[in-house]
Amino acid sequence: MYSHGSESLIKQARDIHESELQKFYSRLLKLLQVKDFGHEAVDLLQRLHLILTATKFTKRLPPELHNKIVSLISSPSEQFQLLGSAVLRETLPSSDQDMNYIQNHPYVKNSHGADLLLVQTSSTTSLSHFCAQLLRSLESRHSEALSHSQTHTLPMLSTILTHRPECLTEEHVTILSKKIVDWLRYASITQAVSPGGFFSGSRSRQPCPIAELDGSVSGDFFTVLCVGQGFTEDQWMNVHSFSILRNWLLTYHSVSNSNNTADTAARLQYSLSLSHSHSLPNDDRSVDGSVISMVSATSSSSRLLPPKERLREKSFQYCQRIIEQSDRKAQKRTDCDLQKACLVEAVCILDTLCLEDCSLVYRVFPCIKALYGRLSSDLSYARVLLPIAQFYLNHGEMAAVDCECMWQLVFSRFPSELFNDPLLAHEFLRFIRQNIQTLPSKVPQYTQSFPNLLKFLAWDSAALVDDFVDLLPSMVTTGTAVELLHTLLDLPCLSATLVLQQRSVLLPITEPSARGPQALDAFRNPTFRGLFLFLLRNEAGSGDTMDRLCVLHELLVESADWPRVVQCAQTVPVLLHIFFNTVIKVADEKLLSQLILVQLERSGLLLQVPNYMNEIHRVFSHHLLKLCKLHLSLVVDQSHELLDFAGTTANVFNKEELYTHVVWVLGEYLSLSCDSRCSVRHITSCFEALEAVLFEITSSAPPPGGMCPNPRVITTLMSALAKLASRSHDLIPRVSLFLSKLRTASRGGSVTWCSDDDDLIAIVTRGEELWSLLKTPGVAQSILTPPAHVTKPQWHRDTNVAPPLQLRTLTRLTQPQ
Amino acid sequence: MVRCFLIHTVCGLSALGPGDSRVLYSRVFGPDPPEQSQNQDPEQRRLLQKERLAVVARQVRSAVSLSRDASGRQLVEVVPGEEALALQEADAGVARLRAGQPFSGEMSALWLSILNLGFTLVCEPHDNLLLAEGTLRTLARLCVEHLHMLGQGSEVLLKSNRVDFMLSRLLPHGQLLFLNHKFAQSLEKEVALYMTK
After folding, report:
1. What is the pLDDT of residue B178?
2. Contacts A241 to B, Cβ<8 Å
3. How far apart are CA A117 and CA A120, in angstroms?
4. Is residue A143 very low, low, confident or very high in pLDDT (cuts 50, 70, 90)?
5. Which residues of chain A are within 8 Å of residue B152 when distances are taken between CB atoms?
6. Which of A495, A784, B50, B146 could be stapled to A726 by a disulfide with Cβ–Cβ 3.0 to 4.6 Å?
7. Do A423 and B164 touch (CB under 8 A)?
């Protein structure tokens, strides 16, 4: 466990004094100058490493010590090689002299020093030189160095190919491809003979063949899924080759040049020879045989192929064999997991091969289809089915295969049954993200599957909200927008339901007791089944929301402090912002009105998670303003509903934020200039409703235990009334009367409906401003209901339009110069 | 190719800030991509790399604590000898690291948390996550066994060459290997042999 001891060690290392450090350096140097390094040297080198890593600022070693440590890299002991390179990684990189030393020493080529070279050198020429050396070492038959000398080469070359592809020439790549083909396809199929055991006499041991994972004797070429008592060098290289294969194929394509004519001719010839053997059984053992029998000229027609194509062909065969081998029942659990990982890799490699060379699709698809058939009923293979789904998405059209069942499985069953697997969720959402351009068109049920996909988010909000921020815009369509809004608002309920679903499976059914969790009982109760089933639906389209939402919220009231539900509730506001920002671009006015209605309706119908309602109201308010500003006629359209909301006094207290914005919006946009349908009747009824509320909240003290209305609500109401009055001058006296009464009432000191003196002063000041403004109705109208062009900059800059500028021009013209 | 491997703390420590994480071991594979290392001197490059690793450790730390909160599991102290149980109950998860935060391309940080320690593998988009998960579990198991990480000692700090050795065999130059149980056995024998030195 990370203890105080460790913490103090790190502190000591970080705060070491310069003088102590120098003493330490000289002590270490003395130890390293002795011929045989002992335990103390190891210990001191480790401490040096700790001192260097404890701080993020780099220290420079004294040159003598530095050189000594560089020489450690070629020490015969692997421990010192490791320690030396670890220390050098943490100091400033060696000069070029050091790099040359490292490169030229024979021991160093394939061990830890090489890693240092890779990480620290930035010169392309030295890396190219290094690559050439590595390849030469691969070609040479004998190796006196460590047993893993050759095996490090492939990972190193793969790293270079990935990060610095310019260091490998075309020739290097060709040589390496040929070697990889050899290792993949032609590695030994017998077990390594271990050097004499106890009972080995003079009799020579017969090498026995390798075995499969289920114990049976292997009948074909060696792969990573074959076992033996010991392994030969080329069998190790087989493992390494398969491990780097995908990366190699992906990067290879970009490194090498495009096909020249010789390549194309060879490819054509080969594919012609194969087209005769079109209906191959899925048994790869006969593949080579049938090809040989067709083409009598050469022993193996694949030799006609240029290296790139040959590598593809052998990779295909290897992947086919892996797929076949994965069907066997492995004896060990870890091998079972390996089989799954190999399947994923094999399918991905086949996908890459088909993307490079479309003619392979016809040969590969039957194999993938058979694999799909084998695995589709077993959900424990879900992570293997995702790359298969990617394959179908990429090549399904070309192979004219019906992918309907695949999408049904992936978009229906996976989210609903495997939502709690974090790694599957990550890979699934990544799959969608990577294909987001093509999914909506190729998979028709994608846009309807959001209730299902959101289950991932409801379960593990913290980890997946990032993905959904990217994916949500693709789920917003005009047909499902309203339902999506309701679903987002009910995400915490979905989260609670999923928790209950898991618990219901784990906990036994007991008698419903007063002490026990009510929610779980409700979940199991048939009366409420429908509510929960609606939340757990897989597809959109069966209704925007349910009738008895308040019942549901009551049943789930105890879930408000469950951690998953709380985390989920925190992500909803973010998603709502994205939803509204997206929907505003695609929706017409009719849809936008519906959305406003949903906002008003749901403002009180939310799960009672602490602070959830306030956050949602804030989002609603922000977007209500935006919507109304963009589509001015929305307010008149929905004036009835908005008035209903604004006329309910209770809303002043429990939906304060939203209420303020609704009132503001009514005051600002309920006018003839915004929509020609706005009549005097509209204005008057609105005025009356708002006036009634204002009277009510300013006439009496709040009930015991209740709070005073927010001053902002009062001033907004007053402003709204003034604006409405400026449009219908008959109403002005009523407003003025109220405002003067307000002034009188406040002169007496404090009032019962406002607890803070400063607030009261602010309210009264605003009242006086409005009162004096309304004394001149014409001015009031132009200020409180300005014509639309006032908001445009042109009005203020164009001399032809703006009165002040016109006056200025006139003055200049008429004034004597 | 795995980008880096980290061992770090995932619980509150009085010495550190609330969201912070102490990196106990870090190993970065492969050179920096060229666009990142252009105009920097080696010192700056190293500094930036250290800061990037600290960012990853912090992100994983918060992912772990949120995941533990959500699942409501209590942490139990481990009795020496019950390491296998602790390993079995280890939480696993994956955090998405967006492009630029902190690596230039998008990455997945696969993590395994055992009590207050976290083991993280930062993988590139084309890496096989199933294989990476297996490799991470093996690495964690070997680290816990050979460095007694669930005890009170500080061996992870003072014997980091052992972790280096394990990585050189199981994750050479950041390459994930498809090892069946026989291959893995032979490598683990080598590791066990090294540990006796």
Report:
1. 96
2. none
3. 5
4. very low
5. 1, 3, 5
6. A784
7. no
Nearest CA in chain B to A212: B180
pLDDT for position A291: 33
CB atoms inside a 10 Å sphere around CB A664: 20
Assess A467–B contact: CB distance below 8 Å, yes or no. Answer: yes
Model confidence pLDDT, tens digit, residues B47-98: 888 999 999 999 999 999 999 999 887 776 666 677 777 888 889 999 999 9
A522: closest CA of chain B, how far (Å): 22
Specify the DSSP element, H or E, that contains A371. Answer: helix A361-375
Residues of B in contact with A92 (CB under 8 A): 42-43, 46
Torsion angle defined by CA atoms of residues B95, B100, B103 and B108, in that order, rounded to the nearest 10 degrees: 20
Model pLDDT for residues A565-611, shown as the tens digit of each residue: 999 999 999 999 999 999 999 999 999 999 999 999 999 999 999 99
B180 touches chain A (CB under 8 A): yes
What pLDDT was estimated at residue A564?
A: 95
pLDDT at position A142, please? 45
DSSP state letters, A711-739: HHHHHHHHHHHHHHHHHSGGGHHHHHHHH
What would the mean pLDDT of A536-542 be, rounded to a whole number? Answer: 92
Q: Is B189 on the interface with A (CB under 8 A)?
A: no
Which residues in B lie closer than 8 A to residue A471 (C-beta atoms)? Answer: none
Q: Which residues contact A625 (CB under 8 A, 6 or more apart)?
A: A661, A664, A665
The Cα angle at residue A679 between residues A675 and A680, in degrees rounded to 5:
140
- Looking at the partner chain, which of B11, B116, B180 has a beta carbon nearest the beta carbon of A338? B180
Contact A3 B9 (CB under 8 A): no
Q: Do B10 and B65 meet the contact criterion of CB atoms below 8 Å apart?
A: yes
Of A49, A162, A423, the CB nearest to B133: A423
Rounded to whole angstroms, the Cα distance separating A527 from A520 reads 13
Residues of A in contact with B71 (CB under 8 A): 563
pLDDT at A122 over 80: no
- Residue in A93, A239, A423 nearest the CB of B129: A423
> How far are the Cα atoms of A271, A316, A341 from residue A368, in angstroms, in the given order?
20, 12, 16
A321 touches B at CB < 8 Å: no
Q: What is the pLDDT of residue A300?
A: 45
E strand map for B31-173: 91-97, 107-114, 117-123
Mean per-residue pLDDT of chain A: 85
A191 touches chain B (CB under 8 A): no
Q: Evaluate whether A505 touches A567 at the Cβ level (below 8 Å).
A: no
Q: How many CB pairs under 8 A join A and B?
A: 226
Bigger pLDDT: A159 vs B167:
B167
Q: Which among A196, A118, A182 has a CA at the least distance from the CA of A153?
A: A118
Asked if B94 and A463 come within 8 Å (Cβ–Cβ), the reply is: yes
Structure confidence at residue A304 as a pLDDT band (50, 70, 90): low
Task: Give the closest-approach CA distance of B102 to chain A in angstroms.
Answer: 15
- What pLDDT band is residue A162 in, cutting at 50, 70 and 90? confident
Determine the residue of chain A that is closest to B115 in CA distance: A1
* pLDDT tens, residue by residue, B13-44: 666 677 788 899 999 997 776 666 566 777 88
Q: Is the interface score ipTM higher than 0.85?
A: yes
Cβ atoms of residues A239 and B178 within 8 Å: yes
A563 touches chain B (CB under 8 A): yes
pLDDT at A302 exceeding the cut of 70: no
Amino acid at position A227, single letter = V
Q: Which among B42, B50, B153 has the least Cβ separation from residue A93? A: B42
B72 contact A CB<8A: yes
pLDDT tens digits along B92-128: 999 999 998 899 889 999 999 988 899 999 999 999 9
